[in-house]
Design the sequence.
């Protein structure tokens, strides 16, 4: 199987392709002047500047606004099984050098020069999310390459599950899909992270089943939680709450609007023998926090890990209101000298805007914030500086102080 079967050439308009020339990997439909030669959507094409200068090879899909996603920049590169094995090997070697690989993201799309696909490893199970037509053709090649490369390090993968059920697939003209790649297996997968045991539901959990990107940030709250009273908002399956519990918190309350997530969080607490310390409540965080405030409740540590309030530029304004409100309410519940951990996982909530929103929330609460640290996503979700979309998670820890 070879990917260079199409001889089509995509030529950009004069003055376009600035992002791609700076190292980005996307060519938008409005940047293209013409396409010469026959092709089918999903084929590999060559991309030239307006003057014929070669820019790279990528796969094309005229149904998507992102018409070409670049795979390689060196002229003469052959896109075949060996090419994808090299990409996979590079991605695995990077992770071995930078992070605990017992459970981690193995492939992070553009940041691993494999645009449109992510692969998470949960213990001995892989979960694949394929969101672009061109890479979808190579999905099984990438999976087999991963199995081969991991086996060389003595890691046997017992099962692969596909979670390509995100709505964005429809923009590529593809159906949403989830199911086994290969033999079926038990999709409730036990993992251990930061000393906490979880059951990851790769079939029905959010996204690929568990949010690996916060691994190091969850570890960062350990030293703040010993002997403390902790509130974890948007707890999902209890990850921050359980990290607080295992770090020696006196009591932890985790809150989430999903009963399915709460049920799993309760089970995870039992698995870690933390059920006497960590409790969970199914509630709307926006409704619960004002109620706790009215009851005069305060906490030593408040953690805010909301879902992305915005997934597009057009809804940023409303998202800002949501982030401001949730941080205002959270700050008010922190006792003087306590700590707030707050984050945004939306790429469109840019770092400066998120910082400004938190500042406005603190002013509204008449409290002062002293920054302890600023963090981003785990290094298994690397930030490729030329690919802005790869930078999305902003995570702050603050000490919250009353007027001095």
Sequence:
């Amino acid at each position: 199987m070879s990917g260079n079967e199409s001889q089509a050439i995509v030529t950009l308009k004069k003055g376009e392709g600035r992002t791609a020339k700076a190292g980005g990997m996307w060519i938008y439909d409005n940047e293209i002047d013409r396409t010469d030669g026959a092709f089918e959507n999903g084929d590999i094409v060559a991309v030239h500047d307006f003057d014929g200068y070669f820019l790279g090879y990528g796969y094309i899909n005229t149904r998507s606004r992102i018409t070409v996603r670049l795979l390689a920049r060196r002229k003469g590169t052959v896109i075949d099984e060996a090419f994808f094995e090299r990409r996979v090997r590079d991605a695995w070697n990077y992770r071995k050098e930078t992070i605990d690989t017992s459970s981690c993201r193995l492939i992070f799309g553009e940041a691993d020069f494999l645009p449109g696909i992510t692969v998470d490893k949960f213990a001995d199970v892989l979960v694949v999310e394929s969101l672009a037509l061109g890479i979808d053709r190579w999905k099984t090649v990438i999976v087999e390459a991963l199995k081969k490369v991991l086996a060389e390090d003595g890691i046997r993968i017992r099962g692969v599950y596909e979670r390509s059920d995100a709505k964005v697939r429809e923009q590529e003209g593809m159906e949403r899909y989830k199911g086994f790649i290969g033999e079926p297996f038990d999709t409730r997968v036990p993992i251990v992270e930061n000393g906490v045991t979880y059951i990851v539901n790769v079939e029905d959990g959010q996204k690929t089943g568990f949010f690996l990107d916060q691994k190091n940030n969850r570890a960062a709250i350990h030293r703040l939680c010993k002997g403390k009273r902790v509130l974890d908002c948007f707890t999902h399956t209890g990850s921050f709450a359980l990290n607080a519990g295992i770090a020696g918190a006196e009591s932890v309350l985790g809150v989430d609007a999903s009963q399915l997530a709460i049920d799993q969080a309760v089970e995870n607490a039992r698995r870690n023998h933390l059920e006497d310390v960590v409790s969970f409540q199914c509630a709307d965080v926006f409704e619960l926090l004002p109620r706790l405030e009215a009851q005069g409740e305060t906490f030593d540590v408040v953690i805010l890990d909301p879902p992305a309030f915005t997934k597009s530029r057009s809804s940023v304004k409303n998202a800002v209101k949501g982030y401001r409100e949730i941080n205002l309410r959270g700050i008010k519940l922190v006792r003087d000298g306590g700590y707030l951990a707050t984050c945004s996982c939306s790429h469109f909530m840019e770092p400066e805007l998120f910082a400004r929103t938190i500042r406005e929330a603190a002013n509204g609460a008449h409290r002062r914030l002293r920054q302890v640290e600023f963090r981003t996503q785990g290094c298994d979700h690397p930030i490729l500086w030329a690919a802005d979309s790869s930078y999305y998670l902003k995570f702050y820890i603050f000490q919250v102080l009353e007027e001095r």
